Amino acid sequence: KLRKLQRYFREFGVPIESEKTMCQQLLKELPFSLHAREEPVTIKDWTIHMCPVVSFPNLIAMVLHYINMNDKAGTLVSPAGVPRDEIWVKVGGDHGYTSFKFCFELANTAHPNAIYNTMPF
User: Fold this and answer.
1) Binning pLDDT at 50, 70 and 90, where does residue 101 land?
2) Beta strand 100-106 with 48-55: parallel, antiparallel or unpaired?
3) What is d(CA 118, CA 95) in angstroms, rounded to the nearest whole number?
4) How far apart are CA 19 and CA 56, in angstroms?
5) Apex CA 30: angle with CA 24 and CA 31, to 5°?
6) pTM score
7) How much is the pLDDT for 26?
8) CA distances from 92 to 12, 22, 67, 111 (A)
9) How confident is the model at residue 97 (pLDDT cuts 50, 70, 90)?
10) Which residues touch 77 (CB under 8 Å, ≥6 apart)?
11) What does the pLDDT look like over 14-25, one tens digit per residue?
């Protein structure tokens, strides 16, 4: 989606940073560190492939950072069924052919299942 948006803006002469530059800037602003490396992974056909792996030392710090960002932006709400003094975090996962992904979502947003409220980790 970002690439489509970049193409659209470029048609009108509006400069947009590259994805790499945007990611580098985001990583500088995070209050925790991410570690990227390649690991040998066995997939369904029992062959070993080198796959990129990203890890971070503290899931709690990551979730608290996201909650604080939403709080500062004023996007935290109390949906029906969620007590006003609680924040609910949903955790999910998906196993694809060559990858395994986790994500979390805050239930205390107006649209908790929207893609922009889903944080992969």
Assistant:
1) confident
2) unpaired
3) 16
4) 21
5) 145
6) 0.58
7) 66
8) 39, 26, 17, 16
9) low
10) 108, 109, 110
11) 877 777 776 677
pLDDT of residue 72: 92
What are the angstrom distances between the C-alpha of 66 and each of 23, 31, 117, 119?
16, 11, 10, 9
H or E stretch at 5: helix 2-11
Q: What are phi and psi of 64, to 5 degrees?
A: -65, -40
Tokens of 104: 């979390």
Q: Has residue 41 got a pLDDT over 70? A: yes
More confident residue, 39 or 17: 39
Residues whose CB falls within 8 Å of the CB of residue 58, separated by 6 or more in sequence, listed in order: 32
CB 50 within 8 A of CB 29: no
Task: Give the Cα-Cα-Cα angle 92, 95, 101 (nearest 5 degrees).
Answer: 55
Distance CA 91, CA 109 (A): 15
